[in-house]
Amino acid sequence: MTVKKLEWIEAPTKKEKPDPNELIFGRMFTDHMFTMHYTEENGWHQPQVRPYEKISLDPASMIFHYGQSVFEGLKAYRSADNEILLFRPEENMKRMNRSNERMSIPSFNEEEMLEYIKQLIEIEKDWVPGEPGTSLYIRPFIIGTEPNLGVHPSHSYQLFVILSPVGSYYPEGINPVKIKVEKEYTRAAQGGTGMAKTGGNYSAGYNAQEKASNSGHAQVLWLDAVEKKYVEEVGSMNIFFKINGEVITPSLSGSILEGVTRKSIIELLQSWGVPVTERKITIDEVIESHREGKLEEAFGAGTAAVVSPIGAFTIDEAQYQVQDGETGELTKALYDTLTGIQTGTVKDHFNWVTEV
Amino acid sequence: MTVKKLEWIEAPTKKEKPDPNELIFGRMFTDHMFTMHYTEENGWHQPQVRPYEKISLDPASMIFHYGQSVFEGLKAYRSADNEILLFRPEENMKRMNRSNERMSIPSFNEEEMLEYIKQLIEIEKDWVPGEPGTSLYIRPFIIGTEPNLGVHPSHSYQLFVILSPVGSYYPEGINPVKIKVEKEYTRAAQGGTGMAKTGGNYSAGYNAQEKASNSGHAQVLWLDAVEKKYVEEVGSMNIFFKINGEVITPSLSGSILEGVTRKSIIELLQSWGVPVTERKITIDEVIESHREGKLEEAFGAGTAAVVSPIGAFTIDEAQYQVQDGETGELTKALYDTLTGIQTGTVKDHFNWVTEV
């Protein structure tokens, strides 16, 4: 399809680019952002690139009161050949529309939206860092803007895309983390919003996350809200276990986010001939497999860290170490292959990568 | 306690007051609002009344991404003697701090905060309508404002109080509504955020609310997220059943909002010698009592409608009528007494009302 060139307003002054070795996730933003508006009369309209600056909203705007919002997260990488690459961005566009549906937000044209994001990145191309492990993080989000305290979907919305150069998630190499199995708080229930990337899912986890941090854990491992026995996610990542040669990840239950990295790992493992299964898995099964010496590897998967090895998990007072706290061989291979494909150093047999 | 007079900036122009017969809930706001800021260095500081106007936020502000927010809702009434009355406002302040705790937002001094709200209302006193059924709706809310895409509690917040003159919830008298028992979507689970007044709880219900509206229902009746059999809330109100002379309301389970109207109804019924019980109640028990002719009344309770009679409820395809679709005697007595106390026409034996 052809999408017309975006109207854009150039920022009058440009920021100094940060030192690529000192990038902190999500703290610095580029010179421009993309915005688009929705009204019932005009649908999604007025797509525009304009200077990154504060936005002005009525204090009665629905986002401040009833949390009607969705977001996405993806990355642009600079290849060795100086191309700018996106990893399966169409998956993020699809998921954003699925989140929209759950949150009663009007959907957008996915192809058009992706084209707008590419045009924004083209304008900001000098902001895509090239050092190993760095990338330009892309954050599209939509908020309900109608000034109205009635409890019902907003009649107007704004969509934004902001960009943030981010450093390596593992400045000193990929490092196994310790996680805590959460038994009090829950993240999402069947029929809730767990499958949507909406704000409320994330702040709902802060209490548990703080409790985990205070006891020296990097992340929370969430169990299902009903029986508190099925493994769901780790922090804001999907989770994988390698048990007796087979890789197992919780099936999409409606309360689990359908991760793009998750999907890619499953496809990659299948292409490698490694047995991989999506099914319900209880925390008791994980412990049992550990006791029998069959829990070979465990890792989280998500856009930010790509693959995050789990070195140990704590349940109540008991701690279980995985792979002697070292990164497993398969975990490492997945990380290397995925980041290799993303940055163009590993051949992309899957057609996952799109050039901007 | 003594709280110093607030610093305030007067609005340069004043809006015209609306026709009290044409007020729509939460659509018009007064000339001024209250604001206060939080930073780690200064705590809650800079309390101020200033003109109601748009607020300016960085697009990376956490409220837009991870939904860290809490709010409250209460009303100021004009009595026949021209006093301005608040109904149990200290309960709202306490609940807001309980919501803060769940959402990892720093708590505020409740007495001080109530005093600020009173000073704001004093400034806006001409906006409190006096016609029967009207009031000035008070909406305090807090949002995370740090510009940071990291998934963790914000390090800075803004607190606002905005005011909206609202009309009678029942312009043509108190009217029974039809509600739909929701079996697919869920509102909140144990360990989730159901007991907190946070944005995400409300937009999470839009899908179900729209489905209910489309089939001619005013509200959704929520069941528990685990077994989908215990009654939780109706729309954004607490629910009460009168069965065989006894009033029953779901006990506070952690997933149910602790309503100020709910609490007041329980205390009022106790003072009248009407048996009232807080306990788990299944939807099957409600149907069974209906079949046996023992379901005498049903109603929702919340700040907006005060008391909202339920005339019928639908489960799957079956519809059950309560009180021949009329407002029950006890429901009406509760509505009249509560609104009477709130507006000063019924003697306040409980000391619930505070003069501004």
Secondary structure: elements and pairs:
The structure is a homodimer of 356-residue chains.
Chain A: E1 7-8, E2 32-39, E3 43-51, E4 55-57, H1 63-66, E5 69-71, E6 74-78, E7 84-87, H2 89-102, H3 110-123, E8 135-144, E9 156-166, E10 177-181, H4 199-203, H5 206-214, E11 219-223, E12 231-234, E13 238-243, E14 246-249, H6 260-272, E15 276-278, H7 283-291, E16 295-302, E17 306-315, E18 318-321, H8 329-343, E19 353-355
Parallel strand pairs in A: 1-3, 10-11, 10-17, 14-15
Antiparallel strand pairs in A: 2-3, 2-9, 5-8, 6-7, 6-8, 7-19, 8-9, 11-12, 13-14, 13-16, 16-17, 17-18
Summarize the structure in short.
Two copies of one chain form a homodimer. Chain A has eight helices and 19 strands.
Structure description:
Two copies of one chain form a homodimer. Chain A is of the alpha+beta class and 356 residues long. Chain A has two domains: 7-168, 2-Layer Sandwich (D-amino Acid Aminotransferase, Chain A, domain 1), CATH 3.30.470; 177-345, D-amino Acid Aminotransferase, Chain A, domain 2. The first copy, chain A, is built from eight helices and 19 strands. Chain A has helices spanning 63-66, 89-102, 110-123, 199-203, 206-214, 260-272, 283-291, 329-343; strands at residues 7-8, 32-39, 43-51, 55-57, 69-71, 74-78, 84-87, 135-144, 156-166, 177-181, 219-223, 231-234, 238-243, 246-249, 276-278, 295-302, 306-315, 318-321, 353-355. In chain A, strand 6 and strand 7 form a beta hairpin. In chain A, helix 2 (89-102) packs across helix 3 (110-123). At the A-B interface, strand 4, helix 1, strand 8, strand 9 and helix 4 of A face strand 4, helix 1, strand 8, strand 9 and helix 4 of B. Strand 4 of chain A pairs antiparallel with strand 4 of chain B, so a sheet runs across the interface.
